[in-house]
Design a protein that fits this description.
The protein is mainly alpha-helical. 69% of the residues lie in helices and 0% in strands. The longest helix has 24 residues. The chain starts with 9 loop residues before the first helix and ends with a helix. 42% of the residues are buried.
């Protein structure tokens, strides 16, 4: 069923919370039935390796059906995919990589934390607070950044096979998380489906996808980036393809910035609410850069950026999202600093070097993982 914004209301979104990823959950359920519950742990370890999906499946008995599903998605793209639009969206990403990563950390992730029910599953599975929280957050941010880079780099979906592999691994990890939180062995407290919906359900998946698509565009504009309507729409088109590979229902996949923005507001209006988990996730995210600078430089910059970048959504909803996630108001004016950062972050050479370095790093990681 194609996307129709006017048909999406609270009742539809409530129904979407009862649906996860039937295809992947069924495949994983059949594998667990054949191999036993311990296969969940083996699959998690396989997914953590810096190798492609096929290599990750080596040594995992009974994974043939998962591989067939992967090959099908890898070789059969939907008819609506527009290669030229995708190339333009990827060029835009390459040009603004540095600032996109800034918006990712200080807007996209906080938006996800502002959704009470979704924050609970993020908190449970990420374990980003307490103890070794910093290292775990770095790992979470790196994994998220890798997904974004693999999805949006020039050649993604067309000549870069890492893209489908990365997204399919994310999709399987989502299914593993659902199986884990419903498994007494891994989560003795259980999961309240009636109150929270299915873990990582269709509404949560769509909301996260929109946080990486139109919400990034809105954040870049807050940082002073100029762009055309075509740039906006083509960037969202790339994420529509990512959503297809992640198993998101087609009636939740938007193909323009305007539709994506309006759907994001509908989901936020339905889900934004304070939670201890959301505040803790946000707190950890804020503390990381402060630790890096030992609290000397721009110690209130993270809170300032979060509130600045979330201001469009806050105004549109009439809700102070910064307050919802516990990001305090900042009296210091960092406008000049933000302006300087935006100018530096828009340097083409800097973005090119960063993207090239990131690719080379991940190639090296993959080679080491293959040797092991």
């Amino acid at each position: 069923m194609p996307f129709e914004l006017e048909k999406i209301d609270a009742d539809v979104l409530n129904k979407k919370r009862t649906i996860a990823d039937p295809e992947m959950d069924q495949l994983l359920g059949a594998l667990i039935a054949r191999e036993g519950g311990k296969v969940i742990g083996r699959l998690f370890k396989s997914m953590e390796k810096g190798v492609d999906f096929e290599q990750a499946m080596e040594g995992v008995g009974g994974s043939e059906q998962l591989l067939e599903c992967y090959w099908s998605r890898k070789t059969h793209f939907p008819a609506w995919l527009d290669i030229e639009r995708m190339k333009n969206g990827q060029k835009f990403f390459e040009k603004h990589l540095v600032l996109i990563l800034v918006v990712l950390q200080y807007k996209s992730l906080p938006l996800c934390y502002s959704c009470r029910n979704g924050a609970k599953i993020l908190y449970m599975t990420g374990k980003m607070s307490g103890g070794d929280g910093s290292a775990k957050l770095y790992n979470r941010l790196n994994n998220t950044a890798r997904m974004v880079v693999d999805t949006m780099s020039p050649g993604a979906f067309i000549s870069n096979e890492n893209t489908v592999s990365t997204l399919f691994k994310v999709r399987l990890i989502h299914a593993l998380v659902r199986a884990s939180v419903k498994n007494e062995r891994y989560n003795p407290k259980g999961w309240d489906v009636e109150e929270l919906g299915e873990p990582i359900n269709q509404e949560d998946l769509a909301g996260t996808l929109l946080a990486f698509g139109p919400s990034i565009i809105s954040g870049l504009e807050k940082l002073g980036v100029k762009m055309s309507q075509k740039d906006r729409d083509d960037y969202v088109h790339c994420w529509k393809m990512a959503g297809y590979l992640l198993g998101i229902d087609e009636d939740l996949l938007t193909d323009s910035f305007d539709d994506g923005w309006r759907l994001a507001l509908k989901i936020l209006s339905h889900q934004v609410a304070p939670s201890a988990e959301g505040e803790e996730l946000t707190k950890t995210c804020i503390e990381i850069p402060k630790k890096v600078t030992a609290g000397i430089a721009f110690k209130e910059m993270p809170e300032y950026l979060i509130r600045l970048l979330l201001s469009d959504e806050s105004i549109a909803l009439g809700v102070d999202i910064g307050a919802v996630i516990g990001a305090k108001k900042v009296e210091t004016d960092y406008k000049k600093v933000i302006g300087t950062v935006s100018k530096i972050g828009s340097l083409r050479l800097l973005n090119y070097v960063l993207l090239t370095s990131y690719r080379l790093f991940n190639q090296a990681v993959a080679q080491v993982a293959t040797i092991r």
